Amino acid sequence: MTGRILAALALRCALPLLVTNLLPSPVVAQTPTPVIRLAVAVIPPTVIERHGKLTGFTIDVWNAVAAQLKVKTEYEVVPDPATLNNCLQSGQCDLAMPQFITWERDQEFDFSTPVLTAGQRILVRDTGESAGVSPILDLFRLLGSSTTLAWLGTGLLLVLIPAHLAWFLDRGREDGVIPSKKYFPGIFQAIYWAATTLLTQAEESPRQWLARLTAVLLMFVGLVFVAFYTAQLTTELTVRQIKGAINGPDDLPGRQVATISGTISAGYLRNRGAHVQAYRRPSEMYDALLSEKADAVVFAGPVLLYYANHEGKGRVKVVGPEINRSDIAFVYPVNSPLRRRVDSALLELQENGTYDVIYKRWFGE
What we know:
By secondary structure, this protein is an alpha/beta fold. 50% of the residues lie in helices and 19% in strands. It has 13 helices and 11 strands. The strands form 2 sheets. Strands 1, 4, 5, 6, 7, 8, 9, 10 and 11 form a 9-stranded mixed β-sheet that branches. A two-stranded antiparallel sheet has the order 2-3. Helix 2 runs antiparallel to helix 13 and helix 7 crosses helix 8.
């Protein structure tokens, strides 16, 4: 009897252990991978959007940093560079793509270790042989200008008025310049006579004395007309050549220059006395240059060089030296806990050669 009691007690004690061993073990809770929100604007070659995916120098650098930090990335694509800092101030992102380090920005934000050093450059239309421009095209462009159209209108009046006067006074004379008495074809004979008199001095003179006086006045007006028109065309050609010569920063004052709003390029141009045309996107400032709404573009050197060697090849060129060369770095809110971690990752990328590989991929040696 005592043995049965002891066996029952032992079974009762062992049963919970047996059940615990038979049940599946609980799943160990895993810590979710941190997510960092990075604000970017599409500015080739730093950020390029292709088929809905982002690539470019900034994207490659940050992906390497994220791999070092073992974090995921959510890219917050903002419509233009001017709103990058707004994303930081509103708390919608944790850091923003690399920007130029300036005194004004340093008062509001913190910066990472520089990822690039560059300056502002000047982009102009390529009007040389590489752009396919020839003297014949220049001639047709000049003949179709507003100046030529205005002078043609004036010349038309100077022909039609004397032609009608000569037809009225000298028509119907067999030995005259207008042998026909009828308006048609007499007026055409009169127009031909007036035009040749205005431009080259007529070979024949009307027989009627008042018509002859008209011919003398028309010949005098023709001399003045041709002289003034030639002078006007010469002046316009000279102005175009002077206006088209932008070779450096000293040529920017007083010119129409396109750039991106809210950037250091816009501030620089205002200080130089240029007429600033501020746009939200790089494509808009390039269009302004190519459509001759702007005389030049001033923006970050790597961006303009990339455009000149790709989409704008043969149509634009970069001229002059770099302006205000300075560092470019990721931007954080003040006292961001990410700063030290990202800086450490950037230094590691530079030491192990990863940064050099990315740099050469986008900018060459």
